[in-house]
């Protein structure tokens, strides 16, 4: 997508906004059931723009090891993955497509469970579908299939369903409801195509970012496993004083470098529970702002989320006999989502933990906060959680169990180098995730502009703009 298109979409016409301030409907636009759209656009229900809207078979077929693909909602989420397909026999497929035959150029739409997911049939191979998918065959002289796909990716469907629903969340779409969906539509198919292409270009960018992030995360996971087991040694730690290569030894965690140890978490960290006595804050004591009172919902991915933080007054904090945090503490979740944790940053200030957390305070002469954080993101930690949580329906841990977690431990200097490498990889991934979030926001803004005609990629005949 060219820079001219992005700039045009990103900067809404000043004339349009000025006219919108002065009038409910700007010049050249009209009010419709779906909002304000250009005068040379129409609003049509989907049935008028289609040859057929039907769903897949209502019975579960007899699956086969090989045969013809049989698609469900899960198959059209993201890129097609034939390793996840179900298959039916040629005979059953021939029977199923007598009623519902998908073809290239059609649109699939999820109608049960996760509703409103569109997928253009862009392939030639035969397949049949389950009842959870609707098949939409278009009047191709009226409607561009990629434009319709972008419509379903926008908020329009959700808004229309929300207006119709009396209460609750809509989890199923009936065929009649799909047929009645209102589509804001440029009469000029070239404009439909231009809009679809602009939005598809951003979709492609989003997809590439998602793949890149997944690749970086996979590399980081593999790197973490190599560094934390010592299978890959950093050059400055790989040799003995005489220049020979260091070897390995067997341990409770498998093979580790000869100059490493396996220790318990209790040997390298102290633990502190929150105050669970009568001093524990009551619900009525929470205030709009004060001292942070951190619970399991506030920690994830090594961070503490302040957006929905709970607060207690200073005098309530002062009466607590324990569980007061300090910079560098690791706050670990003991119940429910075991393994979640957050690190208290230097600038955090005063705070205390709820009973769902425990403070893990590294012993500075043995280890560092950064290394303990790396450990809790590793497979070692996951295995220890599985071992010590007991496999209950509602798993939980205590400080006593955490203290028994086994940790592969190198020198503090090597720990620091390992943590730095992995932290740098985290920083790169976080930057990509922020870029992805921003790109998705741009896509949402573009859909709002383009699918309502606020920004025109092709000017109407006779326009002087």
Automatic annotation (TrEMBL):
Pfam families: Methylase_S. InterPro entries: Restrct_endonuc_typeI_TRD (IPR000055), Restrct_endonuc_typeI_TRD_sf (IPR044946), Type-I_RS_S_subunit (IPR052021). One of its GO terms (biological process) is DNA restriction-modification system. Residues 97-219, 257-435 form the Type I restriction modification DNA specificity domain. GO terms for molecular function: DNA binding. Gene3D superfamilies: Bipartite methylase S protein (1.10.287.1120), DNA methylase specificity domains (3.90.220.20). Residues 195-222, 422-449 form a coiled coil. The keyword Cell membrane does not apply. Keywords: Coiled coil, DNA-binding, Restriction system. SUPFAM superfamilies: DNA methylase specificity domain. Belongs to the type-I restriction system S methylase family. PANTHER family: TYPE I RESTRICTION ENZYME MJAVIII SPECIFICITY SUBUNIT (PTHR30408:SF12), TYPE-1 RESTRICTION ENZYME ECOKI SPECIFICITY PROTEIN (PTHR30408). This is Type I restriction modification DNA specificity domain-containing protein. It comes from Ketobacter alkanivorans.
